[in-house]
Every structure is written in C-alpha cells, then in structure tokens.
Amino acid sequence: MLDDDRIDQARKSLREMLDVDTLRGRSFLDVGSGSGLFSLAAAGLGAARIHSFDYDPESVACTVELKRRYAPDFAAWTIERGSVLDEAYVANLGAYDVVYSWGVLHHTGNLARALEMVSTAVAPGGKLFIALYDDRGWTSRAWVPVKRVYVSGRLGAALVAAVFVPLFILKGLLGDLGRGRNPLARYREYRKLRGMSIVHDWLDWLGGYPFEVAAPDKVTDFFARHGFSLAKIKRGRGRDRNNEFVFVKSPLEARTTMSRPS
Questions:
Q1: Angle (deg, nearest 10), helices 198-206 and 154-179
Q2: Crossing angle, helix 216-224 and helix 111-120, to 10 degrees?
Q3: Whether pLDDT at 252 is above 80
Q4: Are 59 and 31 in contact (CB under 8 A)?
Q5: How many CA atoms lie within 13 A of 198 on its CB side?
Q6: pTM of the entire structure?
Q7: Same domain for 128 and 155?
Q8: Are residues 70 and 151 part of one domain?
Q9: Sign of CA dihedral 67, 39, 113, 108
Q10: 61, 87, 129, 229: which sits with the fewest CB atoms below 10 Å from its CB?
Q11: Domain assignment present for 255
C-alpha cells in the first residue's frame, strides 16, 4: 500500500513536530521501525545516518524491503532486529541526534524501562520524539482483556475484529452523518495524518498487547529527571489517543552510551 503520497505524509508528520532542518545532516534512530516508513521519511528530509530496529522479524524484513525499493544507495542506513529493553544492545548503538519511537514503547511490556533506554540513546542537545497512549483511567483498563483475547490466537483475533471493526465503522458513520459530512471522506483523509491506513490502525489498536498508558504530566516529569526539557506536545484525540512529545536533551548531559563500533 506504500506510495509517494504516503511517504510525503510521513515527512509532513516529522516536519510538524520537528524543526525543518532538524534532520538535515543528522543521525536518526528509529526505535520500533515497523514498516520502515518513517525511517524512509527521515532519509527524504536529509538525515545523514539512520539506524532502524524492531523486535518483530517481519517488521525488520519489511523495512529491509522498503529500503531496497526506495533507497537502495543509502549506505548509511542500518536495519536489524533488536529490543529496546536490551540494555547491552541499546548501549552499543551509541547516541543519536534524533531518536524516534511512535506508538511503540507502550507495547514492550515494560514502559518505564523502555523510556529509560531511549533516553540514553539521545545525544546531548539531541531530540527525542515519542508517542504514547494517554492514561484515560478505567476506559484504558477496559481495553486490556479485549487485547489479550486478540493476541491469544487466530480465533481470538477473528472474534475481536468481527465485533469491534463494525463498531468502529458504525461509530464513524453516525458521527459523520451527525456533522453533515461525507462518511467516505474519513477514509480518504486519514492517510493525511501520518500516511497510515485506518484499517491497519484499527487492527493495530485491537492487537496492541502488552498495553500500557501514561498521563502527559507523568511522562514530562520522568524526562525532566533525566535531563530533558519539553519542546512540544500534541495531545491525541479519539479512542487510541496517542500523545506526541518532543523532548530536548540538555547539551550538558553527559553521554551514557558507548559509540557503536565501526
């Protein structure tokens, strides 16, 4: 489903939260690269060095294929399997000017440790761009058993999707009709948010387990204690409310990771 329009929307998503020239000539670490779309977007925005990793081998393979098709000559783009919870692995990566992890860390099973690990990968004066599910109290907790059933196997996934996907469609339809807008516009315009597919995002939400949430003030306080200041925040909307944060690491903060061997 990847095309030039989706790639362009991904670039716009990065530019919206980061300064225009933040990536030009800089290093970019994509933590939980998924399809590799945003690593590719970073390449298009002038990143000089990119490292993409994901715990899921299929996501790694997808990122490798995306690079082969769209950026085969980008020699400074490394792709591999790895875990953000693996302290030795993260330490070996070195420090990057921009560390990016959108909607990933809350699915690791240990959000606090994941946040700790990504904080060590940011170079002094560098930026950390993350998105985390908002803590919506009992509403957030109610989704945990649904997600657990989805990941229990093919039958569980089919059952949950059969129940909730029609509900998502119906909710959107009723909302659009109530506002007097074309219901089909929702699907045409969704990709303009980040270049993503609404159906894939529905399934990603239903199957997103382990599942943790964090209130914005808790996230901000956590990074303040680790030498970061909040540069920008974008509050999410809707059911799968992802709050987006851009933090800047103090230039005086000593590097806590070793340089990656050449």
A1: 130
A2: 40
A3: no
A4: no
A5: 16
A6: 0.86
A7: no
A8: no
A9: negative
A10: 229
A11: no
